[in-house]
Amino acid sequence: MKTNNRLIKEKSPYLLQHSHNPVDWFPWGEEAFEKAKMEDKPIFLSIGYSTCHWCHVMEKESFENEEVAELMNQTFISIKVDREERPDIDGVYMTVCQLFTGSGGWPLTIVMTPDKKPFFAGTHFPGHDKYGRIGMMTLIPRINELWRNKRIDVLRTSDEIAKALHLSSHIVPGNEPGEEIFHKAFEEFKKRYDPEFGGFGNAPKFPTPHNLIFLLRYWKKYNVLDALEMVENTLTKMRLGGIYDQIGYGFHRYSTDKEWLVPHFEKMLYDQALLVPLYLETYQVTGNIFYLDTAEEILTYVMRNMTSEEGGFYSAEDADSEGVEGKFYLWSEKEILSVDNIEGQFALDYYNVIRDGNWTDPHSGQSDKSNILHLNKTPELLSAKINLPLSDINEKLKKVRNKLFQSREKRVHPFKDNKILTDWNGLMISAFAKAAQVTGKEKYILFARSAADFILVKLIDINWNLLHRYREGEAAVKANLDDYAFLIQALLDLYETTFSVDYLTKAKKLLDVCVNKFRDKEDGSFFFSPIADNELIVNQKEIYDGAIPSGNSVMFLNLLRMAKMTGDQDYQEKGLMLIRAFSDTIPKSPSAYTQTLTGLDFLIGPSYEIVVSSHDYDYNAVQMINEIRKIYIPNKIILLKTDSNSMEKLSDYIKEQKPVGGKTAVYICRNFSCDLPVTDPELLKNVLR
User: Is the four-CA dihedral 659, 509, 546, 81 of positive or negative sign?
Assistant: First the structure.
């Protein structure tokens, strides 16, 4: 019979997955730390997330093992943390793991004193020694020996690590970097670029969209064709590879090989959210419909699989189904041919299915003749090769894919983490808003609005304080910097999509709240947690742009955009202080801070304020806005001023921008100094180009 531990009362799907373990788990909270002090035991902190494959492996091998659990319960007070629910805790202790071992990952394993100072760190530990790794049954007695008999050494180590943590967040402000930093970042990417398969480095390979967004802007600024080639080759190879779900759409987390063939099969909301704008921008630059189709396919996946009835977006889908990694996504030749009414040979050829399979189970090392579906050619190239019109090719592909999709739907689906996170939802709202701008499709506006309205109703209080997580009717966990930064960005994007002044007003209000709660007034940078929050041993300041951009880098651009939109130069000054705060850090390895460099590009310019002035938001205004949206102009803000939208109250400097002779007029401005108005769409097109 299953027994329950304290985690049974939690809302986090990850914690609930561990609620039947024989380990006496505590959620993070004072009860655990008080008990540790009272019983003089160290804390065993385990951090992971619900769709993490190796977290499942460690649970099965260690936390479900009665022998391991008994030893843990005797030796430790054990705490489980969902890294997605508590990124503040994860951020601090992942830095600890990197300080101890030089690397990190999940599950993250930390052993620390009852006052939260760590003295041991690692990642995955099996129950018994194997894979060349020390097992829990060996590790726990060793740690217990240290705690009981070498306490002075343990405490010295924990104090040293705590000091190192504080030093890692120490900032020495200087001058903002100049344009030379763009060239240095580009050269770093050039050295790591894989010209054959795209992407950077060898394996594993991650999408990291903000790196490619930077390269698009670098191409735009300096007309360096190599930068554009890097983007196009990478995006094409990713879309054709196994990292992309060729049947149900959406990208898996990363590729375990350099060819983008063998993915780690989990799907994260933030990857979809960050990749959509990248594919949209590349479409704007190249006019290649392949990139637009990819962006819209990703959105189809999110609308179908990752959207709650209330409007928010779910967090992730697991790599495993039926306890087997990738099982939901793999196909044998026999399975393909057994699908009713399918053009079997065409499907086998198109998706590169082979009889012996191309997938090897990473645990057993065995092949079960399963295939990861992937492509060798875009539909356009296939059309040219077999001499069939593209329309016929697309129709054929659509029929084959739909048949395979319907067949796959009958399988056991991977677990879905259905918690709704404010920060990741902010990223997804931006993606839908930008898709609406590029395509003009109303459905994308509806999804963006619905999610934004959900967050602004369910995850905010009357004082404009945000919460981080919503699940099953409960909003909880104090918001962090990323929650504010990504939601503010989303509201700015929604304003530029709908021109509803309400979104800009709310973005401004949240920005002011964030400045008051998170900003260090001395150096201008932002803490990850509110300044008044002293729960952790250090309140980090992060500028590194990892799997997702950092809150500081997004806030940097938010401040600059708000300055342009409102004419309030105090926001610009705060942005300048922020970039100066990290002036010592970024030049050391600028390719690690590409979202910040995107903001710096906006700051250095040229950047534009485009004011569309019309008596009403009518056909003429829409026509002019559509002309602006057709062209890739990344460093711009667009304001719509009408007789009734009260935009002047927020943005003083647009008072004099008026319609001309009753016609909609477009004013293109730099540093709030505007050129003569344009009233003809064709002339506007030429001016913009």
Answer: negative
Q: Give pTM, 2 decimals.
A: 0.95
The last residue of one of the domains, among 144, 168, 192, is: 168
Closest to 214 measured CA to CA, from 230, 203, 201: 230
Low-confidence residues of the chain: pLDDT under 50:
none
Domain of 624: which CATH number?
3.40.30
254 assigned to some structural domain: no
Would you state the pLDDT for residue 688?
87
Q: At what angle do helices 442-458 and 481-498 cross, to 10 degrees?
A: 140
Q: What range defines the domain where residue 110 resides?
A: 6-168
Q: What is the pLDDT at residue 364?
A: 62
Q: At residue 121, what is the residue type?
A: A
Q: Amino acid identity, residue 680? A: D
Return the amino acid letter for 170: H
SS3 72: helix
∠ CA 471-474-479, nearest 5°, is 85
For residue 393, what pLDDT is reported?
82
Cα gap 497→447, rounded to integer Å: 12
- Joined together, the tokens standing for residue 537 give 């041993």
- Boundary of a domain, candidates 355, 384, 413: 413
User: For residue 77, which amino acid is it?
Assistant: I
Q: What is the pLDDT of residues 72-129, one digit of tens each?
A: 999 999 999 999 999 999 999 999 999 888 888 999 999 999 999 999 999 999 999 9
Pairing of strands 636-641, 673-674: unpaired
Distance CA 600, CA 182 (A): 9
Tens-place pLDDT, residues 505-514? 999 999 999 9
Residue 527 burial class via C-beta count within 10 angstroms: exposed 0-12, middle 13-18, buried 19 and up:
buried
Q: Does a structural domain hold residue 242? A: no
Provide the number of structural domains found in the chain: 3
Domain contains 354: yes
The domain that contains 74 carries what CATH number? 3.40.30.10
DSSP state of 593: -
Please identify which residue in the block is written with the tokens 């992060």: 542
Residue 429 token pair: 């709202």
Beta bridge partners of 665: 613
Query: Are 229 and 193 a contacting pair, CB within 8 Å?
Result: no
